[in-house]
Amino acid sequence: MPEAQPKLDIVAPFWNEAASAKEFARLLSELEAEVSRRFGFETRKILIDDGGTDDGAERFAQALTGEWEIVRLSRNFGKEVAVLAGLDRAHGDFVLIMDADLQHSLEVSLQLITELVEDPDIDVVYARTNREGASWRRSQLAKLFYGLINSSQRFDIPENAGDFRVMRGPVARALTQLRDKRRFNKGLYAWAGFRHKALIYTPADRASGTSKWSRRNLVAFSLEGIASFSVVPLRILSLSGLATALAGIIYGFKIFFEVIFYGIAVPGFPSLLIAIVVLGGFNLALLGLIGEYVWVALSESKDRPVYIVRDVLSRKRDDREP
Ligand code: UDP
Ligand code: MG
After folding, report:
1. Is residue 80 lining ligand 1, measured as CB closer than 6 Å?
2. Record's Pfam families (predicted)?
3. What is the fold of 7-210+306-315?
4. Candidate from 101, 104, 221 with most ligand 1 atoms within 8 A of CB, to mutate
5. pLDDT per residue over 243-272, tens digit each?
């Protein structure tokens, strides 16, 4: 009996990427031909339409070849959730996640797959950008963010690594068990564990349209990462609260004895003002932070599904025209 062919599922979320549909479909069919030639893989594509408002899904349906599924979500849930929707439908021996905007090239995808197939000791190979071109301020911010988030846990979230990765089946299955609603994929990949390997690459420029990440989004995203993966800010909060209180008590004693021994009147209005403003500011900032944690807890405690599927378009290998 011939050995069953290993299966590779390619998961790609898209949101208003009609302009790149044709080109991406071509990239996929080249990729499939290549992995079939090199490793004898049988491939299937799972594209997720993340509530797009253009005719992207139709265009992809027209352009895709071979076996595919297009899962249309009922609205825009965000890329992180769209990836989960794809993983939920992937049951291959290998799963590749890539963007549909042509920033993830055929060459790098092939390299990822090759590295994983050739190294049985590794479960995940992820692509890591070399962050060339990022401004100094931006990269310092990223450093601070990862430093904060990684300082207190048993797993490390690697810098500059995104969803572009290929993993073995069990890893994909493990990820689908993590049903966080406010998803921070980088954190989830790290949390799930397994043996990872990085591949450094330079992403291509976007073929059309603009990145769907605005600056504000990035800030929100980082806060989400921190709130769902780090207790350090809360620790800092309690410690600095304690320290300030202690300083206040000591200062209070000082004043008390001064009054007793020297009977001083009331100078020091500036110091009073400074204390009020500094402490007030601290209070507001840290209350906001606690709010983030509460918000995460609240969203996770609602018993809603992570996403809703509107419908699924698909074609099996057998339906292909002769
Ligand atoms: N995307 C999505 N839902 C969203 C935002 C983006 O499915 O809410 C898709 C998008 O179409 C693309 C991929 O996720 O295929 C990466 O998005 P983008 O290119 O905006 O991110 P970047 O490459 O700048 O990280
Ligand atoms: Mg992109």
Report:
1. no
2. Glycos_transf_2 (PF00535)
3. Spore Coat Polysaccharide Biosynthesis Protein SpsA; Chain A (3.90.550)
4. 101
5. 887 888 888 788 788 888 887 666 776 678
Q: Is the CB of 127 under 6 A from ligand 1?
A: no
Helix axes 215-229, 269-301, angle to 10 degrees: 80
Q: How far apart are CA 321 and CA 233, in angstroms?
A: 58
Q: What is the CA radius of gyration of the chain?
A: 26
CA dihedral (244, 245, 250, 253) positive or negative: positive
CA of 211 to the centre of ligand 2 (A): 5
Per-chain mean pLDDT for the chain: 86
* Ligand 1 in reach of 17 Cβ (< 6 A): yes
Is ligand 1 within 6 A of the CB of residue 186?
A: no
Q: pTM of the predicted model, to two decimals?
A: 0.80
Write down the domain spans for the chain: 7-210+306-315, 232-301
Nearest to 71 by CA among 31, 104, 100: 100
Rounded to two decimals, the ipTM of the complex is: 0.95
